[in-house]
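Consider the tokenized backbone below.
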């Protein structure tokens, strides 16, 4: 299923670079030991701007919720409609969530709470890899 290629900026470039290496990293504040996503110039918690680093995650999580996309305006995704779209909470911090379709999961057969693991798919336009999630059997 073809995906749009993200256009990294200065703030999220380390996230996308790690994806190209098939690693999942999340911004972390060293000052208050708090993970945050999406990345920001300052910590959501303590406001520190010079204590941010990138921390590698395990790549494991759980399905928090999902929906089925029947009508979408993204041209590359229209041929794939309908498709599952899930909110994934990370094992390291359930408050950190990422959105993904679920390759290999039949339409509307998503189990809330199911264990998932990250995979990386290359986008056709630029070759940028993006994180997606597969249910762990």
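A designed sequence for it:
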């Amino acid at each position: 299923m073809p995906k749009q290629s993200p256009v990294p900026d200065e703030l999220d470039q380390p996230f996308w670079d790690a994806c190209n290496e098939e690693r999942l990293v999340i911004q972390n504040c060293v000052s208050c030991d708090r993970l945050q996503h999406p990345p920001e110039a300052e910590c959501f918690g303590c406001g520190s701007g010079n204590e941010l680093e990138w921390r590698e995650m395990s790549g494991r999580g759980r399905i928090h919720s999902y929906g089925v996309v029947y009508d979408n305006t993204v041209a590359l995704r229209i041929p794939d409609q309908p498709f599952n779209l899930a909110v994934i909470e990370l094992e390291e911090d359930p408050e950190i969530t990422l959105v993904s379709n679920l390759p290999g999961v039949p339409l509307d057969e998503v189990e809330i709470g199911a264990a998932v693991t990250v995979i990386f798919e290359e986008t056709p336009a630029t070759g940028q890899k993006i994180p997606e999630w597969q249910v762990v059997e």
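The chain has one domain: 13-135.
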